[in-house]
Queue: 3 jobs
Job 1
Amino acid sequence: MSASNPRLLDGKALAKKILSELKIKIDQFQPKIGRPPGLAVLMVGDNPASAVYVRNKEKACQKVGIATMGQHFTGNATQAELEQVIAQLNQDERVDGILVQLPLPKHLDSIALLRCIDPDKDADGLHEVNLGKLVRSESGLRSCTPAGVMKILKEYDLNPAGKKAVVIGRSILVGKPVALMLLEANATVTIAHSYTSDLGAVCREADILVAAAGRPEMITRDMIKPGAIVIDVGINRVEKEGKSKLVGDVAFAEVAELASYITPVPGGIGPMTVAMLLSNTVQSYAKKAKD
Ligand code: NAD
């Protein structure tokens, strides 16, 4: 099937809907728990893209009634200093989620820092315990961007079962967990990466193509199976016609001519990632009502 008018997978609208559902849930739980949910966002240094992401996350928290305990460290912050702050936040009763905004400056060991976070407060779902639970198909906090991909597929009734899915990228942040989630949803999954030969041929097999390589508009029309579902995770800032612009890993206009469904950039997986972060925080919060 080819589609001259693909359906847009509208992450912005879905994220808005999820945020209003979270607000209702928070209002229900708050009298029982006696406080709002809390998310602590740790940012180190002055990476401008990270600053924008952190601001968006904090704004979304405000909308639904999650208290943010943001802490901004200079680029010289030490590993020991950050580990101590995380240890305090682990003990802090008001904190349900802890997020370390990545990437960190080179002198810091992000894996070791993520390991310090209490797995029950791991709002980003990147702690090895939560990633391990994903591998074992056990319930746990799921990493936000991959969870956002799965949520948008579900919202549009696009069941991966029995489909061929190709994920481009094998990072711990996106590629590997999204591949595992698609596998969990019974797709037949291929992971492509920078060593894959004939990427075009691999992509043309895909009923579901998830692009997470961080290469602006590298996925072109000739790499698409007609009727494919195309999920663009990439966020790349490029100069176009003298202006700075965000584009994905997919050449949207030409790929949209062949795809049956496609996510835009911006307005696709980006807002879904924020919605899933808040959702993880509220999931940890709601557990307190049962404790
Ligand atoms: P990364 O650099 O850690 O990983 C990129 C992966 O792509 C690697 O595994 C690499 O092997 C693969 N790759 C690179 N070039 C390739 C090529 N030419 N052919 C095939 N594979 C190639 O990046 P990441 O953290 O996984 O992020 C990927 C993209 O997703 C980036 O653009 C990032 O900004 C974006 N991102 C978006 C969100 C969101 O909320 N939408 C969240 C996280 C990351």
Job 2
Amino acid sequence: MSQLETKPFTPLNLDQLPNNTVFDTLLINVNIATMADTNSFGIINNGSLGIIDGIIAYIGEVNSQYPAKETVNANGQWILPGLIDCHTHLIYGGNRANEFEMRLNGATYEEIAKAGGGIISSVTATRDASPQELFDSASKRLECLIEEGVTTIEIKSGYGLDLETELKMLRVANKLREEFPIRVIPTFLGAHALPPEYQDNSDGYIDLVCDEMIPVIANEKLATSVDVFCENIGFSYEQTEKVFRAAKAHGLKVKLHAEQLSDQSGAALVAQYNGLSADHLEYLSQASIEQMAKAGTVATLLPGAFYFLRETKLPPIQALRDAGVPIAIATDHNPGTSPCLSIILMMNMACTLFKMTPLESLQGVTINAAKALGLDKEIGSIEIGKKAELVLWDIEHPNQLSYQFGTSFKNEALT
Ligand code: NIG
Ligand code: FE
């Protein structure tokens, strides 16, 4: 059964284990960073952790009294929640190395987009690619993230901009879920850019997204949420709202590419629709921050795009902290603004570029990224009753993941 069809997850109450308990797996001599508190890594040194049926059933400072089918001696390694990359555009044809060079020679991202390059050049290559070609190229990228300890990934469509190619992309995302040991969460991003067929008729394209694409995608259960690029080179506030209304009418959740290049009040809009997250946010206003805080909408920051576009305006991190808005961090992997396949590097950049702390950056790729996907009851922290989607790391402390960069860390997923 595909994960999109599973019933909503209900955490088990395993506080009281029966006397005849036998764990499937018991980890011993393990350092645990639970990520279950807001103010700390939730460290338990030299503890143990028991798993039954893929669920965390025991977390303790001393070894449990119960037997296990398999006991793993971690020899002082660290167990952490599996990392979550909550914003990617992993599936596309071609690449845009040529545009990188154009930008180095002075062209801006907006200029390249307006001249028909940018997202549209990836649309042409994606329309031309077969499902197998898209699957093969995305598989190689996915493997890089899995090797880095990523156990959940969100993947957006948005390089099709016609029903056929959007469906092709979402089906590839669903096939990746079937073929790889990773939780894949597909998002429909039909309103990513205006396709050439609708030049001068952006309202007509939004009608297509709302009236034809969303109903089919919801009906075929190909995505769980809908995203829009709300921007002066993307879609307006009003058009975004129209897409959100259609999404909600079909039982899909919403999220938004908001305030990346200018302030469009998109973050306030997505919050008003109880959105999961508002992403990018360099140009976010105080008024929108307050709306996000009220709605519980996560701020997903994307240091890779910030870096690669050589942006200088920082997202308002201190104001987000002050308002209590949870902050997630993601790769935003895409061929135009963030061709990066390292969530660990994003953790470092969140610290160096955004002055987040190593604790905040790890929260950003675990519990807060789970919130950004609406999955925080299920994954994102080590708590009894949550899914045992965990990774064992050969490190000395979890802050090392943010500190050391340009290197990989030995790890092993226990999913
Ligand atoms: O998240 N801003 C819009 N979408 C992507 C870029 C897509 C592209 O340039 O291909 C982003 O930055
Ligand atoms: Fe993006």
Job 3
Amino acid sequence: MATLTLKKVKKSFGNTDVIHGVSVDVADGEFIVIVGPSGCGKSTLLRMVAGLETVTSGDILIGGRRVNDEEPMDRDIAMVFQNYALYPHMSVFDNMAYGLKIAKVPRSEIEERVAQAAKLLQLEPYLRRKPRELSGGQRQRVAMGRAIVRKPAVFLFDEPLSNLDAKLRVQMRLEIKALQRELGVTALYVTHDQVEAMTMADRMIVMNGGVADQIGAPLEVYANPATEFVAGFIGSPPTNFLVQGLIGGDGEHRIGIRPEHMRLSGAGAGKLDARAAYSEALGAETLVHVKCADGTQVTVRQDAALDIPEEGSEVGLDWDKPNEMRFDAEGKRL
Ligand code: ADP
């Protein structure tokens, strides 16, 4: 177990800067999720911590020790990959034991550690099987097991659930989170899925084009996004954005309002007139999509018990002032 510190970490590939200086202090035992769209630099950041990419400038510290120049195997980390990277010709036991064998851990200790991990992960019945004889979820657990037996200071996860179907993903994210809690190991977890980030993270780092736009606890980030990008990326359906001009007043800035903070009123009775486009009745709630005069699409999330406007009908849009989030022309929160 250990702290993890990034100090102004930058990465360039040739002339292209892809990480523009990320700093974060991860507490011992904390679960940090790096989240952002494809190409924002999540994997590059994780791979620098793992030692699979060099650091262009800045420092990475694990347990207070600068590791920039250390080989991956000396960093006291264990990584779980998206494709699990299991050896197909080896049994579950041998897959989990392999790293320990390479590290010349005595046989008896290997057996003990693998047995412990197998128990924790409910893999005991499968130790003699080959990876192809396992389900996706079980393979995922073997990859976890291989990381656990190393007793690392830090777990690194690179989109570990993206090969699983939706239901299994939900189950596995609970399992991984519970396991990390139980073991108390500091974790850095990369995903493009904001729901995964919201549900798993103690704190999340929201990446936007190589910049950490915001670092904070999920609900804090949701309630108080630092930038227009974060307001749009975290939360589903995304925040609605209106230009200030549309609702009167001057200024270039844009206003973000979450779908659950929008409500429909009678035509002409709201702050803004719009036309109902289409609706999605999801059971417990309904998403009503409307179009404003300037073409801006707005989503209203309303209780399923409320009336759904007819397609093409005129409606009013209303919301409470305190729920407006204002952003300047650069997308920074005002
Ligand atoms: P993410 O994991 O968020 O999808 P990556 O960290 O993989 O993003 O990539 C960030 C950016 O760096 C992308 O624009 C990608 O094209 C670029 N990149 C990644 N690896 C290399 C490389 N080896 N050489 C050049 N560019 C790279």
